[in-house]
Predict the 3D structure of the following.
Amino acid sequence: MPRSGCALACLVVAGWLASVAVVARTAEPTIRGKTASEWLTMLRQDPDPKHRRVAIIALEIIGTRWPEVVPGVIKALREDKDADVRQQAALTLGQLGAEAKEGVEALALALKDDKSPVVRRAAALALGRLGKPPSDKAASPARLAVPILADALKDTDPLTRANAAEALGHIGLDAEPALPQLVAALKDDDKLTRTYAAVALGRVAVGNAAAVAALAEVLTTDSAVEARKAAIESLGLFGSAAKEAVPALARALSDAHTEIRRKAAVTLGKLGPLAEPALPQLREAFKDKDKFVRSQALQAVGGLGAAAAEAVPAIAACLQDEVVDVRLSAIEVLAQLGPLAKAATPQLTAALKDVRPAVREAAAEALKKVGGDGPQP
């Protein structure tokens, strides 16, 4: 995602990173010949906004090794009159991570009230960085900002909306109250916002029926490839709750974009027997021009159980595929089906003469499981 910022400031940071001088931990950190306190004074008092931005960058390098850094940056976010300085303050709080969690309130207020879109973008981005819980069982430090992030999904600035959606995804389960707004964001005019909303739903919705229906609709109607990919990946996280999306996933197997077809096949494979309605499309995918799609479609059919028996002739035909991995996938599926795949005995027997030893060995083992009698390799 493109991020607004100052190229000059970045160059300054790069130069300073190489010249950071940190004295004993009990002493005040010094950067470029100035102490943390001196940088804080510059941030508060220097009339030149460029100098104040430089001060924030220096304080970011010092970080929480000096206790006054975070409060000083928060104050700049709240009170500085220059939008670029406030933007830098927001970005710095995000860079400092969980150690700057007391900045959540100031960031939320900046996202809600700041007149400058660059500040709102930075605030949403920073809340996302603060939003990641320190562990699976811990609450997100940014959870209190969820209502404001949800409202920001309607911001007039598209990049602010996209950053807000991304932030809610980082917050995860604690962002569940924003579920209706995330579902609505799937229809945003901005494709980046739609994409991040789809990603976020996979982390926030936990298989919610409304989210499943909305993500399935994305697969059918959204023109943005990245949004469709994100929708499929999120559905893949829902387990059996994604059953209602099977028809949409089946249609995605004929998408013009290879990556979409690949992800659809993988997600259908995760659904096991619940993917049975997609069997006709999966059989067609055995002939896909992409070898990974062919292989994944075979494996998805193998997960259908007894319902896959009608596809045995099509699976057996894949033993003639030019790609070794596809032939192996077909043999693996036939072995899974056992006696249900007995009709494939002639093709498995022929595979005992395959040019690849791995195929010959797999075919011999599969014949034992399907009950066929073929010559030993």
